[in-house]
Structures are given as structure tokens and as C-alpha cells.
Amino acid sequence: MDEAEVKSRQDFLRELYLSGYDKAMGFMALIVSAGYAGAFTVWDHVQRYLTYCERMSAGALFTASLLLFVGWQIRGQWVLSRQQMKVSEMVAAPVADFDALREKFRVDQVRVRAGFQRQLPWVFGATVTLGGIGSLVLLFACLRHLWTGHV
Questions:
Q1: Is the distance from CB of 86 to CB of 106 less than 8 angstroms?
Q2: Deepest in the core among 67, 96, 138, 140, taking most CB within 10 A?
Q3: How does DSSP classify residue 50?
Q4: What would the pLDDT profile of 31-61 be if each residue is shown by its tens digit?
Q5: pLDDT by residue (tens digit) across 61-88?
Q6: Of 50, 37, 71, residue with least CA distance to 137
Q7: What is the pTM of this model?
Q8: What is the DSSP code string of the chain?
Q9: CA 78, 81, 84: angle at the middle one, nearest 5?
Q10: CA separation, residue 119 to residues 20, 50, 90 (Å)
Q11: Rounded to an integer, what distance in angstroms lies between the CA atom of residue 37 and that of residue 131?
Q12: How many other C-beta atoms are found inside a 10 Å radius of the C-beta of residue 118?
């Protein structure tokens, strides 16, 4: 296999990977957003029956989870906007500078992607754990009210 064929296959795999990664990140954001919508809908319907401690516990956990999720999304959009600015620099660059800028962009992309891949499990895990515990607080509070016959 010659070098051009290897490069062609690498480019294909890179595009395939990036396409899948972007779709997975978008789907994850959609699922987490739907989870927040569901949790806050339940919260809205049952919060008047909760004790002060249950409301504050669930509220603190949901808020921490939401802040982490929104912060992660904002960071991702900030990184994306920086990438777009670098692409615009390449487009506007003189032909003589293009290859150097493209290589610099590629190296930066590898570094950024590696950072996101390291951080994603921790951010996702913390977001889901905090929101999940908040949801369990609501679930147990609702079950407690059902079992004790509170109306």
C-alpha cells in the first residue's frame, strides 16, 4: 500500500470518527436536556408536598448538575468558535502560509480532542450522578408520601 492510499484511508477514518463523535455529543446533549426537562416537570408537580430538606436537597443536586452541564456546553461552544476563527485565518492566509497554518490547526485539534476525551467521562459522570441522586430524592419523597397516605 502506497503512502497516498494510507493517507486516503486515514482521512476517511478521521472524517468517520469526527462525524460519529459529533453525533454522539449532540445526542448526549439532547438526552441530558430531556432528562432535565422531565426532572423539573416532576419537581414542579410534587415540590409543594416535599419537606424543606427534600426540596433543598433535590434543588441543590439538580442545580449543581445543570450548572455543570451548561458550563460544559458553553465551553464546547467557545472551543468551537475558536476553531472556526482559526479556519477563517487559514482561508484568508496567503498561499505560502496555508500549509503551516493547517499543520498548526491539526496539532491543536489533536490536543483539544484529547483534552475533551479525558474530561468527558468525568463531566458526564458528575452531571448524571448529581441529577440522578436529585431524581432519587424526588422518587423516595414521592414514595414516602404514597406509603404514608399524605394527600
A1: no
A2: 138
A3: S
A4: 888 888 888 888 888 888 888 999 999 999 9
A5: 999 999 999 998 898 888 888 888 887 8
A6: 50
A7: 0.72
A8: --HHHHHHHHHHHHHHHHHHHHHHHHHHHHHHHHHHHHHHHHHHHHGGGS-HHHHHHHHHHHHHHHHHHHHHHHHHHHHHHHHHHHHHHHHHS-HHHHHHHHHHHHHHHHHHHHHHHHHHHHHHHHHHHHHHHHHHHHHHHHHHHHHHT--
A9: 155
A10: 18, 35, 28
A11: 12
A12: 9
Beta strands in the chain (DSSP E): none
Nine cell digits for residue 88: 477563517
C-alpha cell at 63: 442545580
* Cell matching residue 111: 490536543
Give the cell for residue 21.
463523535
Residues 138 and 55: their CA atoms lie apart, in Å, by: 8
Three cell numbers, residue 40 = 423539573
Task: For residues 127 and 71, give the distance between their C-alpha atoms in angstroms, rounded to a whole number.
Answer: 11
Ramachandran angles phi, psi of 94, nearest 5°: -60, 150
Residue spans of the domains in the chain: they are 3-148
